[in-house]
Inverse folding.
């Protein structure tokens, strides 16, 4: 608990500063209303009435997010394993080799099916 | 191999520094002083960092850089900051008001918090209170840094989403996909450090780099390097690459690829203080990754070799100077990279992150772990296991190598064949060819049996 | 003391966020409320002396899983509304069954906590939080740990099956495209070089205004044809307020393609 108190202090400072800057911004500057200024910036042309791609995005990003989860979890397992490696010894190494190899099967499959290729 | 097994303890003139047990005893006012110091340090750091970057990069490009506001243009960033405050704060019509407002806050706060576990120095006496020069430390300090990085990404995604502008949304998506991809490689590059340090606490990792032991050669004791940057070079190099990707800096500054995406996720944040928050967060993030590099790989606040011979180098307030020097040098490295390298393409970026850094990292981790296992347990089982791992890794590598080699040769053969065909019959395939009987071609092909080298 | 205060603050915050999650009308807001709940949980874990769990909660749930949610929300579009047609047959039954199973699991878990004698934090964390956790995962629960990898495979495969569309043929590289351009030039005389830039700055401050050629005529190639069409519509809309000196894009001559 005591370990976290200083983080809280810093968080209050940082958040206070950020919120203050952001909320003070509308009051410090001039206000000159102009329709064009309030449009989304699209290199000077009239903003497209529809969002990009009809508001939909390539599913590609979902694969990236999913693989990110997979590897994130792998990393989360790797950390305690690395920290306690000396106690776990060879048994730990074998376990982790098995684990990594199994995850790499999925990785190889995704790679093979060009899931890692970007167009 | 045996010298690895028994590192001769070489108790230096100073203790290795604070450990986790030294934290959590500060009275509140000391914590407040430290937190305020850290905050001011980062704010001034950003002001000076922007100036340093602009000045350095302009010298690299034979320009003067900012030199009007204040001596050497030192006040340029202050002037810019004030100007941002005095600019009109636009709230574009279509934006999602709440999130548009929150995104700069969400991106800035975690950047600051990540710095709270970076050690600046050993235990010092501050107004009569003995306290380590580090805001706080946790048993999972490095994880806190990663956690803050993963919250910071929200600022990017939400800024892009809330702006309701195609450039901003695309920039936000790209940027977040890039950051999460490089976060994996970054997380993996720490594993080898933890294998050696056996802890996730930053102060203890620094302590572990105090002394690398020594290699006894007869009566001579050769001290071994203690920095993990030296012991674990591949991890360090991978980390250096990922820290460029993680902070969206050149050559990985795709989110701001102004040629295609204008300003990326912050396109709709005009030049007001909201934009200043993004700028601030970017620079604080650069400091955070540099601080992590210093702490995990470059010996933290400990003095580098020639200075460390001096007994007082690693005690008192001096270490803050060494830490600061390392931080500045790393920051200059960022600037140097920015001045030297062009931006990579997005598909190249993702390929590099997913197909190169991750497998390399995993292979390296297994190798380090095998060596470590040898230290713990010298039984033949380990050696056999290691052999299997190495043979397996080599097998995979050679398999890839032969496949790639074959593919390269195939392509080269195909190109050569095509070239021959085109030489005999230049218009084959419908390519436009200038008339070969033009006056300046006369004699160009006679007497010479030169074969042109095809490109690529 | 501090723990109690933290608990009550976070309890209020997380319950409010959970209610916001359910009642918020925008999907992204719901997702963010979920994020707040997860963060509150993480802080609670930290306060309860489970630092590793707290960090993992933030990194995996707030960082990775929520990011997936946000991506998916963006994929389905900013303003799309929910379709209330049930496409899966009998899903209510199975959902009920799964819910029941989960409730039983929870009850068992809680029962275990309530009725078994507690070991105590000090005894469990003897070697420090992270190493003790590692001991537990990699010795006692090694089977569960290895099975996790199978789960991860399933996740990756699921994403591939759902979201990946394999190309029928290889994507044309820059080299292929360049070749194709030159072949087209040889056959039809189409310009292989890059197109001229628009008249931004020279005539107007927007990229949908064409550039002028040296002879004063308008370069039709300098405007993306989608933008040109867009401009045409605009010009029609505003034909009343149109400046007479401005040449509408619709009148651009075809003279240029003959080069």
């Amino acid at each position: 608990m005591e370990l976290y108190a200083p983080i809280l202090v810093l968080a209050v400072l940082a958040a206070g500063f950020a919120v203050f800057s952001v909320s003070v911004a509308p009051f410090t500057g001039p206000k000159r209303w102009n329709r064009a200024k309030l449009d989304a910036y699209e290199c000077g042309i009239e903003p497209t009435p529809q969002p990009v791609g009809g508001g939909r995005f390539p599913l590609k990003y979902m694969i990236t997010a999913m693989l990110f989860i997979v590897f994130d979890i792998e990393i989360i397992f790797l950390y305690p394993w690395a920290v306690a490696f000396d106690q776990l010894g060879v048994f730990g190494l074998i376990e982790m080799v098995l684990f990594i190899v199994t995850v790499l099967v999925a990785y190889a499959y995704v790679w093979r099916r060009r899931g890692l290729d970007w167009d | 191999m045996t010298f690895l097994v028994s590192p001769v303890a070489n108790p230096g003139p100073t203790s290795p520094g604070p450990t986790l047990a030294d934290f959590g005893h500060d009275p509140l006012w000391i914590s407040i002083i430290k937190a305020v110091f850290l905050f001011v340090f980062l704010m001034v750091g950003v002001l000076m960092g922007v100036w340093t970057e602009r000045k350095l990069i302009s010298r690299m490009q034979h320009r003067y850089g900012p030199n009007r506001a204040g001596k050497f243009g030192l006040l340029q960033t202050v002037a810019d900051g004030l100007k941002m405050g005095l600019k009109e704060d636009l709230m574009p019509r279509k934006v999602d008001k709440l999130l548009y407002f929150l995104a700069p806050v969400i991106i800035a706060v975690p950047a600051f918090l990540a710095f709270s576990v970076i050690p600046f120095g050993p235990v010092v006496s501050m107004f009569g209170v003995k306290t380590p020069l580090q805001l706080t430390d946790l048993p999972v300090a490095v994880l806190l840094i990663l956690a803050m990085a993963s919250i910071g990404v929200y600022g990017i995604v939400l800024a892009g989403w809330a702006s309701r502008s195609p450039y901003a949304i695309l920039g936000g998506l790209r940027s977040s996909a890039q950051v999460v991809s490089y976060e994996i490689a970054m997380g993996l590059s720490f594993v080898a450090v933890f294998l050696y340090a056996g802890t996730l606490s930053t102060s203890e990792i620094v302590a572990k780099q105090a002394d690398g032991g020594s290699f006894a050669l007869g009566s001579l004791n050769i001290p071994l390097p203690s920095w993990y940057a030296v012991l674990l070079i591949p991890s360090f190099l991978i980390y250096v690459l990922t820290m460029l990707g993680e902070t969206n800096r050149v050559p990985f500054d795709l989110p701001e690829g102004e040629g295609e995406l204008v300003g990326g996720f912050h396109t709709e944040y005009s030049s007001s203080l909201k934009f200043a928050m993004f700028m601030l967060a970017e620079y604080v993030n650069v400091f955070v990754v540099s601080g992590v590099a210093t702490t995990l790989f470059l010996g933290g606040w400990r003095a580098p070799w020639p200075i460390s011979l001096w007994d007082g180098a690693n005690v008192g307030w001096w270490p803050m100077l060494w830490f600061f020097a390392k931080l500045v040098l790393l920051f200059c490295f960022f600037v140097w990279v920015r001045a030297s390298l062009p931006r990579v393409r997005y598909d190249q970026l993702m390929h590099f992150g997913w197909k190169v850094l991750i497998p390399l990292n995993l292979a390296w981790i297994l190798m380090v772990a095998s060596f470590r296992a040898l230290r713990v347990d010298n039984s033949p089982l380990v050696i056999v296991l290691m052999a299997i791992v190495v043979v397996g890794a080599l097998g995979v590598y050679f398999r890839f190598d032969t496949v790639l080699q074959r593919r390269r040769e195939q392509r080269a053969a195909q190109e050569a064949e095509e070239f021959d065909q085109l030489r005999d019959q230049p218009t084959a395939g419908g390519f436009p060819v200038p008339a070969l009987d033009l006056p300046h071609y006369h004699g160009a092909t006679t007497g010479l049996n030169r074969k042109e080298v095809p490109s690529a | 003391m501090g723990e109690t205060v933290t608990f009550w603050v976070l309890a209020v915050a997380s319950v409010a966020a959970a209610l916001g999650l359910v009642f918020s009308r925008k999907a992204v807001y719901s997702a963010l409320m979920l994020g707040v709940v997860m963060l509150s949980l993480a802080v609670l874990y930290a306060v309860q002396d489970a630092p590793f769990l707290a960090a993992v909660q933030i990194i995996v749930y707030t960082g990775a899983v929520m990011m997936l949610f946000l991506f998916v929300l963006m994929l389905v579009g900013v303003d799309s509304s929910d379709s209330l047609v049930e496409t899966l047959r009998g899903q209510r039954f199975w959902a009920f069954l799964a819910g029941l199973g989960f409730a039983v699991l929870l009850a068992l878990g809680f029962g275990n906590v309530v009725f078994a004698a507690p070991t105590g934090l000090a005894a469990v964390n003897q070697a420090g939080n992270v190493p003790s956790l590692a001991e537990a995962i990699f010795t006692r629960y090694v089977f569960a740990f290895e099975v996790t990898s199978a789960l991860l495979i399933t996740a990756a495969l699921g994403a591939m099956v759902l979201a990946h569309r394999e190309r029928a043929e290889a994507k044309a590289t820059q080299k292929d495209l360049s070749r194709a351009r030159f072949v087209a030039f040889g056959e039809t005389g189409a310009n292989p070089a890059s197109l001229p830039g628009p008249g931004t700055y020279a005539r107007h401050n927007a990229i949908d205004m064409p550039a002028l050629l040296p002879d004063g005529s308008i370069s039709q190639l300098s405007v993306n044809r989608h933008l040109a069409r867009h401009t045409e519509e605009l010009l029609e809309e505003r034909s009343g307020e149109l400046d007479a000196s401005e040449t509408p894009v619709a009148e651009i001559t075809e003279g240029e393609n003959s080069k």
In short: Chain A has three helices and no strands. The helical segments of chain A are 5-28, 60-83, 85-112. Chain A has a mean pLDDT of 82.
